[in-house]
Write a structure and sequence with these properties.
Blueprint: H1 6-19, E1 27-31, H2 37-49, E2 53-57, H3 64-72, E3 79-83, E4 88-89, H4 94-102, E5 107-115, E6 121-123, E7 126-128, E8 134-136, E9 156-157, E10 165-169, H5 170-175, H6 188-198, E11 202-212
Parallel strand pairs: 1-2, 5-11
Antiparallel strand pairs: 3-10, 4-11, 5-6, 5-10, 7-8, 9-11
């Protein structure tokens, strides 16, 4: 999803193509209510700069769930990566790392380790009940540490992972009808992951796919 802020989007795309570690992918930028003419001029440059990158246009008020569901209808791949436009991919073999788990039949969704720009943890998996509803494990922990019982350095099963970077098999996404559009901004990812778990699949978080958000 994207609205103006082309510097963020360009950083996201440049880092993704540099660090994907896997070249059989497409990128769908979902335009939503941009107003700056420079944004649309930038979109015109994307096909020549980034292979298999295109823009589709979502009409309507901001609804994170609906926008992603709309974008997913244009995707041709066996896996869907929901990815915010204000992401910078840090780790090499980023997509390969996520795909190594997503392709497993017992795994429904895969998440990554997200840092704030000050190199503290934003996301290292979501725990239901934390903070009242659901909260991020190890939030604000300094980058580089192993965390409680080495959990910041261990691939593991969680209640949920953030949709700022979430890889899911397309078949699973379609079976569950994507994100619930009643959750317009927050908790759509938690709801989706809990439904994935109810369907009998694991939610995997890996610390070896790292990014700034």
């Amino acid at each position: 999803p994207s609205k103006d802020h082309i510097d963020d989007l360009d950083r996201c795309l440049t880092s993704l193509y540099k660090n994907a570690g896997y070249d059989n992918f497409e990128v769908i930028v979902i335009e939503n209510n941009s107003t700056d003419p420079a944004t649309f001029a930038y979109y015109e440059t994307l096909p020549s700069r980034f292979a298999d990158c295109r823009v589709v246009y979502y009409k309507g008020a901001f609804n994170f769930s609906a926008i992603n569901n709309f974008g997913a209808t244009f995707a041709e791949g066996e896996h869907l990566l929901l990815l915010n436009n204000d992401i910078e991919v840090l780790s090499h073999d980023f997509l390969r790392e996520l795909l190594s788990y997503s392709q497993r039949p017992d795994v429904g969704a895969v998440g990554a380790k997200l840092y704030y720009p000050d190199d503290t943890i934003q996301h290292a998996g979501i725990i239901t009940g934390l903070g009242g509803y659901a909260g991020h494990s190890h939030k604000y922990h300094k980058r580089g540490g192993s965390g409680y019982m080495f959990r910041l350095a261990t691939v593991q099963d969680f209640s949920a992972v953030t949709a700022a970077c979430l890889l899911v098999r397309t078949a699973v996404y379609d079976e569950l009808h994507g994100l619930d559009e009643e959750f317009t901004v927050a908790y759509n990812d938690v709801d989706f992951c809990l439904r994935v778990r109810d369907a009998g699949c694991r939610i995997v978080w890996t610390p070896y796919a790292e990014l700034y958000h």
